[in-house]
Amino acid sequence: MSENLGSGPPPSIGQPPISRGILFLLAATAGLSVSNIYYNQPLLGEFEHSFASEAHWVGAVPTATQLGYAAGMFFLAPLGDRFERRSLILCQLAGLCLMLAAAALAPNLVTLIGASLMIGILSTIAQQAVPFSAELARPEERGAAVGFVMSGLLLGILLARTVAGLVAQHFGWRTLFGLAVVAMIVLAIVVALRLPRRKPVSDLSYGRLLHSMWHLVRDEPVLREASITGGALFAAFSNFWSILALLLAGAPFHLGAQAAGLFGIVGAAGALAHRVVVCDLCVIGQQHGGAGDRCARDGRRRAGRDDFQSIAYFRHTASRPQPDQHGFHGVVLSLRRGGLGSRRPCVAPCRLDRRVRLGSAVHDSGLDQSPPYAP
After folding, report:
1. Which of 179, 242, 236, 238 is nearest to 47 (CA)?
2. I need a surface site. Which of 25, 69, 247, 360 has the fewest CB within 10 A?
3. Which residues contact 299 (CB under 8 A, 6 or more apart)?
């Protein structure tokens, strides 16, 4: 293993550095687009009031959205290798505007569920923005560029619920989707004016692009492990937030969408504060292999175990006939553990001595000690 653990790839020659403005635009694109699939999660109580005769189907709204997002990642995300990403992003933004408007004007729950499915499919713009940043950046900048855009994606995921809860509480959930249409229109204009064109990196047919994913799953065991872990964490993450809105809306809390949305602030703070410690484990595996790979795998498994423990504890308190203040302790504890499912691999170089200092500081401060999960 090389002694210079912080060294990166050699500098590129001839390629200009990616501008800060483009990075901010890509981060905003990722965050604002992915927000659309999370707006509805703190609004389930509001949907029950608006569609009282169909209230038993309210849970299908976030379910359809997440299923649509999964379908979009499988069928639309590969198109970024075949077609020009800027044009693809603009097409998806146009479709999002139409579907968000349909959700805002939905006369019944069935229409809202259908619009939510399409919103999920079209919100995979983040899966174009993240690789776009890697393509535009020089090799030695690539890790930092992707990490910056991923930070925008993370904040969009966590703060979308806060915005949705505040707007819906004071102006109604239809106003929220109307504002989302305006946000997508403004974003489309800025993308059209500022985002550069980039030649596609592949000339494979669409069918061959889809088939190539099977080869990746078959030949890359680390990718399989990461995919299974990420999918399980995302399922737990979505389960948590869907249950939270209904729990807070019922007895004895009787809290509205604003209260459910405000928990997103706790999650965002936990994710931003916690990511450095967890991500440093991944840096070793990305750069140095061997023991670093084992360290990174252990870090991912510990992160997954913490999230699943948080989910199990919350579901236990939520299932009590009369939840009390301990239920809130479970919610806050789960969020503090890093935003629940929000962990991502760190892609910025970090020297070993810095990692040691970070670990010592966290241990000394007591941040690595958590209350027990016993009910």
Report:
1. 242
2. 360
3. 278, 281, 282
Preceding omega of 252 cis (within 30 degrees of 0):
yes
Biggest distance spanned by C-alpha atoms of the chain:
67
For residues 96 and 68, the answer to whether their CB atoms sit within 8 Å is no
CB-based contact 89:125 (threshold 8 Å): yes
Which token pair is 355? 């990692």
**Distance in angstroms (rounded) separating the CA atoms of residues 283 and 87:** 33
Closest by CA to 30, choosing from 109, 128, 100, 105, is 128
Cα angle 46, 186, 134 (rounded to 5 degrees) comes to: 100
Q: What is the pLDDT of residue 189?
A: 97
Residues 6+ apart with CB under 8 A from 304: 229, 232, 233
| CA distances to 38, 183, 190, 305, 366 from 32, in Å | 11, 8, 13, 29, 35
Q: What is the DSSP letter of 52?
A: G
Q: Of the candidates 26, 28, 44, which has an alpha carbon nearest to the alpha carbon of residue 238?
A: 44
Angle at 183 (CA atoms; ends 178, 185), nearest 5 degrees? 95
The answer to whether residues 147 and 209 touch, using CB atoms and an 8 Å cutoff, is no
Residues 6+ apart with CB under 8 A from 208: none
Instruction: State pLDDT tens for residues 324-369.
Output: 444 444 444 444 444 444 444 343 333 334 433 434 443 443 434 4
The residue ranges of every structural domain in the chain are 18-211, 220-375
Alpha carbons 49 and 30: distance in angstroms, whole number: 32
pTM: predicted TM-score of the whole model, two decimal places:
0.71
Q: If you classify domain 18-211 with CATH, what class do you get? A: mainly alpha
